[in-house]
Amino acid sequence: MTRVQANLLLLLAGAIWGAGFIAQSTAMQALGPFWFIGLRFVVATFVALPFMRWEKARATGPLRRRDVAGFVATGLALFAGAAFQQVGLLTTTVTNSGFLTGLYVVFTPILTVLFLRRRPHWVIWPAALTACLGIFLLSGGTLTALTLGDMLTIASAALWSVQMICVGVFSGRSGRPIALSLVQFAVCGVLGCAAGLLFEPVSLAAIQSALPEILYAGLFSSGIAFILQNIAQRYTTAPQAAIFLSSEALFAALFGVALLGETITPAGYAGCAIIFVAILAVELVPELLRGRRAGRPAEA
């Protein structure tokens, strides 16, 4: 697979995730957030199963216990991120949720410092402040307009960052990205259904009503998109991957306006642009500066 093909797969994953915000929002007209999470990831587990068997047949060695433990930890982070995001959608819009979730690109390097003790590039700090300004404008330019759902979505972005860090560590160490996908899907499915049994009412009629959204999110947003991400990131750089995956925010806004009739204020558009600039700056500025330094000796 070429780098261009890998980046196109990442762009496709971003589009699938962006459209998935529509399914996540409309599904909760009939189904609680935990039941939706549980059922979508049960479907995703079955989607990943044949791919995992294909990967296992070509693996050079068996999985180690510490690899499986890492996969479970990744699944816990994924469930927490999905839960905060899904509950947040009860009181925020698809457009806001899409853009605020994109903050994981800013949070990821910051959390990398805390967890892996790696010093960040200087651009991280102004980018984080810029993203906060974008959130302020996207919320309507007033602090009171920032809903509980927005705050939960920001928390979910931080949890997605933890999940991305776990994927980078455990997928690379094990060499089994699809096995990782299957385990984390299974963890989310079990925990989501268990939380639904404890906290939410459910009926067969409610499941049938939300079945199209469950199948879309399970087959595409949860199953195929995550697998595409894990596969494609083996053939492209992390900055390029983050840029293409962050397109989910743009697709979420586009689908929110086109399919749900949502509107974005001029300040909201400015906030979206500022958040996206912060996301791009975190990934592009270090690469541009590195390339400029590398080119100076040749020019001399």
TrEMBL record:
Pfam family, one: EamA
Main location, first listed in the record: membrane
Subcellular location: Cell membrane
Superkingdom classification of source: Bacteria
Membrane topology category: Multi-pass membrane protein
GO (cellular component) term, any one: plasma membrane
Lipid metabolism found in the keyword field: no
Residue ranges of the TM segments: 33-52, 68-87, 99-116, 123-146, 152-171, 178-199, 205-228, 240-261, 267-286
Start and end residues of each EamA domain: 7-139, 148-282
UniProt entry keywords in alphabetical sequence: Cell membrane, Membrane, Transmembrane, Transmembrane helix
Protein name per Swiss-Prot or TrEMBL: EamA family transporter
UniProt source species: Shinella zoogloeoides (Crabtreella saccharophila)
Source taxonomy: Bacteria, Pseudomonadati, Pseudomonadota, Alphaproteobacteria, Hyphomicrobiales
